[in-house]
Amino acid sequence: MTQIGYLRDLLQNYWQDFKVCVLQSCWQEVEGEVVESFTECQQHVSSLLKAVHQHRLLLLQRFQKRVVDHMNQLEDAFKSLSNIETEILNFFRSEVQSLASFCDQQQRRLASLEDKNQEEMTERKNGKEDGEKEERVVIKK
Fold first, then answer.
1. Of 30, 11, 10, 32, residue with least CA distance to 22
2. What is the distance between the alpha carbons of residues 111 and 103, in angstroms, rounded to a whole number?
3. Is the separation of the CB atoms in 9 and 1 below 8 Å?
4. Sign (positive/negative) of CA torsion 14, 19, 20, 24?
5. Band of pLDDT at residue 60, cut at 50, 70 and 90
6. The pTM is what?
7. Concatenated DSSP letters for 84-129?
8. DSSP letters for 24-93
9. Of the ranges 12-21, 38-47, 56-65, which one carries the lowest mean pLDDT score?
10. Euclidean distance between the first and final Cα of the chain, in Å?
11. Distances from the Cα of 10 to the Cαs of 14, 20, 24, 107, 119, in angstroms?
12. Average pLDDT over residues 116-123
């Protein structure tokens, strides 16, 4: 081999080694950047997913609070309605008792009037009979 051939081979080998070295170096740089970018993307996605999860939890907490508040309001309303219902029933019972007492009183008054009418009728009847007896007595004389 001549010196030129030797130099050419040496230069080609050196060039191959240089290309491999540069390519590997570049590849390692690119690979490092890709890995770094992938890690950053992974962190961004992870952060975004955590934010979505936190927002979902917040919505559920708000919903739960509203449901609990509405349940408390419903319970208070039911208690108020129950109290009103009790008052109405107590009033109604009281009025029924008053009405029953009033009706009994009026029945007694009617019975008393009937008794008086019976007595008057009896007295009239007795008075008529007495008057007839007197007339008979007078007529017989």
1. 30
2. 12
3. yes
4. positive
5. very high
6. 0.46
7. HHHHHHHHHHHHHHHHHHHHHHHHHHHHHHHHHHHHHHHHHHHHHH
8. HHHHHHHHHHHHHHHHHHHHHHHHHHHHHHHHHHHHHHHHHHHHHHHHHHHHHHHHHHHHHHHHHHHHHH
9. 12-21
10. 200
11. 6, 15, 20, 141, 159
12. 83
For 18-45, letters b (16+ CB in 10 Å) and e give eeeeeeeeeeeeeeeeeeeeeeeeeeee
Give the residue-averaged pLDDT of 2-26.
Answer: 69
Task: Give the dihedral sign, CA 53/56/62/68.
Answer: negative
Confidence of residue 9 (pLDDT cuts 50, 70, 90): confident
Which residue is it, tokens 């690119």? 30
Task: Compute the C-alpha angle 53/56/57, nearest 5°.
Answer: 90
Distance CA 48, CA 54 (A): 10
Nearest to 13 by CA among 5, 1, 26: 5
Structure tokens at 49: 């997913």
The pair of structure tokens assigned to 110 is 């009617």
